[in-house]
Amino acid sequence: MSNFQWRRFNFFEFSKEVQGGNLAELLEDSVVTTTTSGRGHLILGDSSGFLHYLGRNDLTATTLRIFDVAVLHAQQLKQSGICILVGLDHHPSDPNISIPYLKAYNSDKIDPKTGHPNYLRSSKIATNSDVTALAVHENQNLIALGFGDGSLQLWRGDVSRGRGARLKNLTLGMMETSVTGIALRTGAQGTFLYASSQNDVYSFNVTTKDKEIKVHLDSKGCRKGLAITVDLMSETHFVVGRTDAVYCYNAECCTHCYAFEGEKSNLYWFRNYLVIASSSEGDKDVVISIFDVQNKFIAYSGEVPKVSALLSEWGNLFVLSENKLYVLIEKDTQTKLDILFKKNFYDIAIKIAKNQRYDADGLVDIFRQYGDHLYVKGDYSGAIDNYCKTIGQLEPSYVIRRFLDAQRIDNLTAYLQVLHRRGAANEDHTTLLLNCYTKLKDEDKLNEFIMTEDREVDFDLDIAIKVCRQAGYFEHALALAKKHEKHDWVLKIQLEDRKNYSQAVEYISKLDPLSVEKSLRKYGSILVSVLPEETTEMAVESCKNGGVLPEDYIHLFIIKPKQMVTYLEKIIELESDEVSPQIYNTLLEYYLALLPESEVKVLDLLRTQNCNLDQALILCKNASCKSGLLYLYEKKRIYDEILVYHVREGDTRNALETCRKFGDEDRQLWVSALRLIPNDPNATSEIMSEILERIESLKLMSPLEVISTLTSTSGATLGLVRDYLLKYIESEQQVIDENQRAITEYQAETEKIKNKIDSLENGPIVFQCSKCSACSKPLDLPSVHFLCKHSFHKLCVASFSDNENECPVCFSENKNILDIIKSQESNKTAHEAFHYQLETAQDGFSLVAEYFGRGLFRGDEDLLSIINEAAKNMSHDKSILNSLSNNVGLQSESRIRMGEGKSNGSSGVLSYSSEARLRLDQGSMNTNKNVSESRLRSQAPSSVPQTVSDARLRLNEGSKVSLCSNTSQNSNASSQGSKSRKSLPENDFNPFDEEDSTAPFDKKNPFYSEPVACEVTTLKVIDSSSQLKQEEASGNPFGNDDNDEKDDDYDESLNPFS
């Protein structure tokens, strides 16, 4: 055989008769006619119709009878438990006649009654010829049968069910002999049926039903048992063995062949191996050869007796010979590799490791050993090839150290290049490779490495450029940087190495805006020093294109003031509406540095109002720019600084002009002028007189403050203020005289009021009013008279007043006075609490701030919380505590004054000034006119909020109301009426306080007087006949005149007049 030229190894171990003779006893006189395997069983069919299932445990057999006569063919599907069988059964009517049947069993499902595989189907095969071949597709939809007459049957349908199957008859040729082998295989182009006879090999495309396409593959066939299918090879589907060789086919043609000569009895495909049983002439034994057709070596070769069948299961190869079962066990991968390593067959070891899907670390170790072996033999190129396959796993330094010799620099270069292509090179590797090129002056290889355009970059660009620069290959570094758009490196080479500034500017101008910004930030200062105009234009253009703030380029022009001014002016012209204040401030700073020729530009820039005024003020002050300072002082309204500036400069006239110009807006300028100008020797008496006149007219300072201010100045004399003091003393004397006249008037008015009160309390009162003060109609009985000399019809009192004991006309005035008194009392107590806390507090300022925030000085509604808190801190003073607690809820005087002058709106809330303030204001308006207190009070509006009860509106217990009947004989009626006197209770409490009857009526009240006995006269009401109806007022004053009986609803105990 020509296969002896392949290397031979012993990768299998042969075990004799693993069944121990049990198989021969099982078969007895029968012969194994077919074999198959799968799903954990070896399946044998014999000539007696029995099927034997051999399990893994000691190959124990399970036997069941399938056919009456014999089992011809069997195929166990790999992906399911279905086993398809073809055999012979007796004819139902004639036992001497055998009929072929196709049966299906499922070995995955065991019948619980018999313990045998589950029976699925049985179909009679319609043929007059022997069944010579069987093939079942793994998709369980196709079954192919070959016959001795050269015909084929293709069954379509579920192989586990007999119904619904459709039969298609196919033929190999006109004069064909028996079919020797068939196979079903699905590939990329569809599903194909391969068939071989003794003369030919065919393929049928059975992908589409009823459109089968036959292709003649070869004019030579094979004997029975020498046609098999291959599952693991993509290019080969069907293998045929002949005496001269083994041929491989696909759906179109014969792909290749292997020259394995010899008479072959069996072919079998086991894993990646082709197993051939062959014999030579005269030899009784059969040689079992196991070929690795991919790696081209013989894995095993051994002799056994006559071979009946080959089959595999559980990873082992079984040989059936003369009813005996032998097994070939493949050695593990590591054992095989050790055998190969000992013989230095590293190439085969690598192939085996790849086929066995060896792990990456194991493969790398094999490559390393192979490389070491070749290195020792002197095959450096081969060694480098194997070392390159270890990249990523083996440390590169292991290889580099072996090839550092200058004689092997080419091999090292090749390894480093592969290292870069794999992306496993670091900076040191790139540096080493480029140094190899540069030291050898091999520009061709350097260009090949860095200038290749048809491949991706497989090295660190920065390191490559850096090494080229260090070696002096500036052109290579520049070309590499430009090619890969390394802008930073391009500019470094142009500016630092080549000193070509113009090309650098040209290169930057062609970049995108973002790259231009980065380049100018980094190299702009260098370019400005060499090419200022071009760099300035480029910076302005970069700002114009957007995305860059003009402030980002300011630092570039620091060393070039004129270029800085040019740049900033162009930026302002370009974006005047969007420029930030920083640009204007910077431009102002550089304008100030160029004074005095740029003074006009400074003022123009300040007038744009785009500069930061505070920063501009600092800049102008540091630069001593007079015009800028004065403009900014005026703009910021810092007028006193203008005054100080003129005084410091000795310009008194302009200082006075400043006071005249801005004095109405800032009156304190005159005070500052009084303090500053006298120190100036140029100050004249006219200037000082004008200053003092303005201070006096605006009342900015008192004379003592003026004298104190002038005393602290060194240039002031008494002559400057003599006229001012004389004039002030004269005006003050006039005020004193005016006040003396007011005091006299007030004393006279007070005496008049006291006399009036005395007459009201002790003297008789005569009512002479003949008309009702409400309706202006003549009075008639019954009528009501008040001590204020107002008289009303009784019905008018009820109509115009809510309280019949109060005069409707005087009610508003009395109520206003009471409100003022009570607000003063309330404020008095609140202020007392405030002063008490202020005296005892550790931090008086914080206390004042708290009272301000809580509204004490505004009279807010939260006065209750303030007073309560103050009362808690004054527990030692019971009198003050009682005073505070009984005056809660009243409005302060300041609150009342706030509403003064408001019209009678919907709110109905008005406030009034105190009596003293009213008198003072009235005296200032007209000192010669005497106004009575009652007139002052009557000038207040009449609308007052109804927040106090009617009883509280009474001034004192001394208020008296008299109910009288007006007759033609007033004096007689008053003298003849019955009189009764009552003394009012002498206590300190207000008897009319409905809200709090215990509230004290403070005797410090200026309207309070000691209670006196009040005579209440009850007058009889005279009817039209002038006859008195009653003698005493003890009856019901509102009863019926014509009925002597008392009213049912009248209770005499409730009569207030009884």
Automatic annotation (TrEMBL):
InterPro entries xref list: ARM-type_fold, CHCR_PEP5_VPS11, Clathrin_H-chain/VPS_repeat, PEP5_VPS11_N, TPR-like_helical_dom_sf, VPS11, VPS11_C, WD40/YVTN_repeat-like_dom_sf
Membrane-traversing stretches: none
Topology of the protein relative to the lipid bilayer: Peripheral membrane protein
Sequence ranges assigned to domain RING-type in this UniProt record: 772-810
Segments of this protein annotated with the region Disordered: 919-1007, 1022-1058
Locations listed in the record: Late endosome membrane; Lysosome
Keywords: Coiled coil, Lysosome, Membrane, Metal-binding, Protein transport, Transport, Zinc, Zinc-finger
Gene Ontology MF, one: protein-macromolecule adaptor activity
Polar residues bias (residue ranges): 923-949
Major localisation: membrane
GO biological process per UniProt: endosome organization; intracellular protein transport; organelle fusion; vacuole organization; vesicle docking involved in exocytosis
CDD domains in UniProt: RING-H2_Vps11
Coiled coil residues, start to end: 729-763
CHCR repeats: 387-536
Compositionally biased residues, Acidic residues: 1041-1052
Keyword tRNA processing recorded: no
Keyword Lipid biosynthesis attached: no
Family: Belongs to the VPS11 family.
Name by which UniProt lists this protein: Vacuolar protein sorting-associated protein 11 homolog
